[in-house]
């Protein structure tokens, strides 16, 4: 029997559920801070397999099977374990700039109009309402703030503040001072006690990409002459018309661009220059490091799966900083509540 690299804590300090869990970026953080995961869910079978390898638990599949309109609140209350924290990096493709552009081009819906992925936020809301979750930690793409002329953002904020009665605190965070990647993501922290939350400071010098690079990388990661030539031709055409993506070799003394789930297709978002060779793609381990995953984290056997999974993940060190700030705030609330309770007992006596 293989040893699970990241088992749950023996004496947990709090409980959480891990929705749209992917490969467990949130779980890595919350377990390290003393949390026990009591339920996890993701619709991607390959991501669930990687999650199981590292945490010894196979997540539930599509959460909509437990939250659809045919399921009563009482049934949700029975099926979802009690927990303190709900965390979710709910699907971002319907809100990302690239996702919106692609859907517009194909005549497809995006945002909340995307029935398959865009409405999953409301599954989070229903679980939080039924289970009376103490606080929420949510993540999405930077474009979530401005999507559909900010209508999406205002719907989310109003739902959380008015329908759920939670406080609503948000921030766009750039990860480049914690990992060598310019990854801007939209984070939301909500407290059922309507607590105002201050996000930690993420300012600092950007880290250089060379920090996470492996030595003696296998030649299979070097892109072919055909692919490299195609990249250069497309870049020239796009530059001439002033539109579209262009391919540039990574500057190893600066952070990389954002790692995305499509990276496995051709690596154009981050190509590493090589002396006397075509550039190469990042290795799966380098992608893991780019997101701040520990060296002990076990990678999937498929490089393509690894690229997709890490491209969809959170930057672990960013979540650590936010989660620490949340738990410090909770400690303050608990101390205050204990003082209030003690005062009431003394007054009543």
UniProtKB/TrEMBL annotation:
Coiled-coil ranges from the UniProt annotation: none
Q: Where are the transmembrane segments?
A: none
For this protein, the record's Pfam families field holds: DNA_methylase
Q: What processes in GO biological process is this protein linked to?
A: methylation
Catalytic function, reaction form? a 2'-deoxycytidine in DNA + S-adenosyl-L-methionine = a 5-methyl-2'-deoxycytidine in DNA + S-adenosyl-L-homocysteine + H(+)
**What EC designation does it have?**
2.1.1.37
Q: Which domain of life is it from?
A: Bacteria
What does the similarity note say?
A: Belongs to the class I-like SAM-binding methyltransferase superfamily. C5-methyltransferase family.
Q: Which protein, by its recorded name, is this?
A: Cytosine-specific methyltransferase
Task: List the lineage, top down.
Answer: Bacteria, Bacillati, Cyanobacteriota, Cyanophyceae, Oscillatoriophycideae
């Amino acid at each position: 029997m293989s040893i699970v690299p990241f088992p749950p804590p023996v004496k947990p300090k709090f409980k959480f559920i891990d929705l749209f869990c992917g490969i467990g970026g949130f779980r890595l953080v919350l377990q390290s801070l003393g949390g026990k995961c009591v339920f996890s869910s993701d619709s991607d079978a390959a991501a669930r397999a990687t999650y199981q390898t590292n945490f010894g638990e196979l997540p539930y599949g599509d959460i909509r099977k437990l939250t659809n309109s045919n399921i009563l609140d009482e049934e949700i209350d029975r099926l979802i374990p009690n927990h303190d924290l709900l965390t979710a990096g709910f699907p971002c493709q319907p809100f990302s700039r690239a996702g919106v552009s692609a859907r517009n081009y194909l005549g497809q819906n995006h945002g909340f109009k995307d029935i398959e992925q865009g409405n999953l936020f409301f599954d989070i809301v229903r679980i939080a309402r039924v289970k009376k979750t103490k606080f929420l930690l949510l993540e999405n793409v930077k474009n979530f703030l401005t999507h559909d002329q900010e209508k999406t953002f205002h719907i989310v904020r109003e739902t959380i503040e008015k329908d759920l009665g939670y406080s609503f605190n948000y921030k766009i965070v750039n990860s480049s001072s914690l990992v060598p990647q310019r990854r801007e993501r939209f984070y939301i922290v909500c407290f059922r006690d309507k607590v105002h939350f201050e996000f930690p400071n993420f300012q600092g010098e950007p880290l250089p990409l060379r920090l996470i690079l492996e030595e003696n990388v296998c030649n299979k990661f070097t892109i072919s002459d055909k692919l490299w030539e195609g990249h250069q031709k497309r870049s020239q055409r796009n530059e001439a018309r002033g539109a579209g993506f262009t391919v540039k070799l990574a500057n190893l003394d600066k952070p990389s661009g954002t790692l995305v789930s499509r990276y496995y297709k051709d690596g154009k978002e981050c190509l590493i220059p090589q002396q006397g060779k075509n550039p190469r793609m990042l290795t799966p381990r380098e992608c893991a490091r780019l997101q701040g995953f520990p060296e002990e984290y076990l990678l999937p056997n498929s490089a393509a799966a690894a690229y997709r999974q890490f491209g969809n993940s959170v930057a672990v060190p960013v979540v650590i900083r936010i989660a620490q700030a949340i738990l410090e705030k909770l400690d303050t609330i608990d101390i205050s509540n204990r003082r209030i309770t003690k005062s009431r007992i003394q007054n009543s006596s």
